Amino acid sequence: MFQKNIPLLSLNQIWKQKYYPWLICFSGLLTLVVVNGLTTTSLSVFDKAFLNEFNWSRDELKLRESVTNGVTLFFIFISGVIIDRIRVKKMLLLGTLTLTITLVSYSFIHNKSEAYLAHFFLGISMITAGSVSCIILVSSWFYQKKGLALGLVLVGTSLGSAIFSPLNSYLLHHFGWRQSFLILAIFPFFTFFYILFLVKNSPSEIGIVALGEDKSESKQETIELIQQGMTYQQATKTHLFWLICICGFCTFYSLVGTIANAFLHMVGLGLTEQDASYYLTIYFLIAGLGKIFISIFSDYINANIVFSICCLTMILGILGFWTMNLTYIIPAIILLAISWGGIYSLYNIITVKSFGLKEAGKINGTISMFEGGGAFLGPFFTAKLFNVDHSYQFPFMLNAVLMLFVFIISIKFKSYIQKLDKIAFSNV
């Protein structure tokens, strides 16, 4: 005999309750695969073609990535404020539509100014349909297994480049770079319609609760899950918030600066362009696996120790590139990939668990501003320093030193993580 105060769920509701959160998780993964894959490092496969056709210097070429990351730096906070107001789905639709139009336009560029303008709109795609939007979307659907869900979603930031790096190489050699960009525009075009018809902002929109939440709880309590956590003002008064910001800037400068120049560096050491693109694929695949592994065990392993170890591992990986020896390229790529997978996942998981979702747009947006600042400066200055003596040794050493600084900060960083882990909303 069922108790009268417990509502009976229809088969359709049971299916939605059990599987729709994972559909949303897949939606976030798909979006990041497409958006990150077509706005970040995989586009470096076209670098040699641009240098040959336009006769740009390397720093002029790499300024494109800095423009994209600069948009993240200057507009991500505004994007976060908008997310908190209008919800995530509209932002995802705007981002995928912008990416479609931009990739089509990219095939018609003829000078640096047009290329920089295209990368400006690639940056708009990133801040509207990138990791911040997808993290907030997926977090609102998972009361339990949040670490696993976020880990699976964040794999998209690496998987996208792993998929599109060899695909871009194939398209380049068979169709040329202009036709390649027209073909690539198909991916965000179909993603736009997928989001339009299947993605919902929160469980309440389809009459269910977040995965792992008591089904007998009221709808109001489900809304409270979305609103749980610190306000932006409260978060900015914590030491942890600013330590994450500082570490994010240095880490993104070092990692993005190194990887954005890795393709040209490997070709300069004697690898073919095709082999260099495959090496990048290996990097992104391993980084994706690292994100999954770290995220699954984020509730069980000591995140503080792992973060510090990942910093040291990234230093070793950058030094592998610094040796200018092809023998160390594969080990360097593996070390960089594993360390980046762990660090990137821990940044996002710690932020959501520590500060909650109440004003996650502003909080994550501010942290992303610092990360975007590092990503903005890293590719350009690494390439600029290359021009001094036509060698990547000094810029890569500088990147390693910055990561050593992050490691030192992380020693203090972890003590504040432990403090915030004890507060009530840390288990959001």
Please give the structural blueprint:
Elements lengths: L10 H27 L9 H8 L3 H29 L1 H19 L5 H18 L1 H9 L6 H39 L1 H13 L20 H9 L4 H5 L2 H30 L4 H24 L6 H20 L6 H27 L4 H30 L3 H28 L8
What does this 3D model show about the protein?
The protein has one domain: MFS general substrate transporter like domains (Growth Hormone, Chain: A, Up-down Bundle). Residues 1-6, 217-224 and 424-428 have low confidence and may be disordered. With 428 residues, it is mainly α. It starts with 10 loop residues before the first helix and ends in an 8-residue tail after the last helix. Helix 6 (131-139) packs antiparallel against helix 7, helix 11 (239-268) packs parallel to helix 15 and helix 11 (239-268) packs antiparallel against helix 16 (393-420). Helix content is 78%, strand content 0%. 56% of the residues are buried.
Distance from first to last alpha carbon: 34 Å
The name of the CATH architecture is: Up-down Bundle
According to CATH, what is the class? Mainly Alpha
Strand content: under 5%
Order of helices and strands: HHHHHHHHHHHHHHHH
- Number of domains as seen in the coordinates: 1
Question: In a nutshell, what does this entry contain?
Answer:
78% of the residues lie in helices and 0% in strands. With 428 residues, it is mostly helical. The protein has one domain (17-204, 217-427): MFS general substrate transporter like domains (Growth Hormone, Chain: A), CATH 1.20.1250.20.
